[in-house]
Write a structure and sequence with these properties.
The chain has 156 residues and is mostly helical. 75% of the residues lie in helices and 0% in strands. α1 (18-24) packs parallel to α3 (64-108). This is Mitochondrial fission process protein 1. It comes from Cryptotermes secundus.
Length: 156
């Protein structure tokens, strides 16, 4: 049985989406709180990168040159995958959904500003569970077709 990956197969994965929560609350909070949410998500990305790199370093290798190369590739693969799947794409997605929601409500309704902001936050939060799997699947596909083909490896 394959080892369970706590960074991708458990609720710990949701820490990578802290910045989406920050983006959803952007209309309500100071920008420094949004930046903090990106710090949390980035820490998650780095933790997974260190975990995958360490696990790869513990595998047996024919020689040290092969080991260092494979350990490096595992770390880079994880860093790229997590950066795009956890921070970059979801952050942009929720940011744009919220911006469009706020803009649309401002120009099509007579709702008070505070109500529009809270509705925008609710819309952003409601979208998060629906974007996780499609984004992960998309990033996995792109990684398989680009970086992993270029370096001749599979998923880490």
């Amino acid at each position: 049985m394959a080892e369970r990956d706590i960074y991708r197969d458990t609720p710990v994965r949701l820490l990578g989406y802290a910045n989406e929560v920050g983006e959803a609350f952007r209309p309500q909070i100071h920008v420094n709180w949004v930046r903090l949410s990106y710090g949390i998500a980035s820490t998650y990305v780095l933790a997974d990168t260190v975990d995958k790199t360490f696990k790869m370093s513990k595998r047996p290798f024919v020689n040290s040159s092969t080991k260092y190369h494979q350990v490096f590739i595992a770390g880079v693969d994880t860093l790229i995958w997590q950066s795009f799947a956890s921070v970059i794409i979801p952050g942009i997605t929720i940011n744009r959904i919220c911006a469009l929601s706020l803009y649309t409500m401002k120009h099509t309704t007579k709702l008070p500003s505070k109500t529009r902001k809270w509705l925008t936050t609710a819309i952003g939060l409601a979208c998060i569970p629906f974007i996780v799997k499609p984004i992960d699947t998309f990033v996995e596909f792109v990684m398989d077709e680009t970086f992993r083909k270029a370096v001749g490896t599979g998923k880490y």
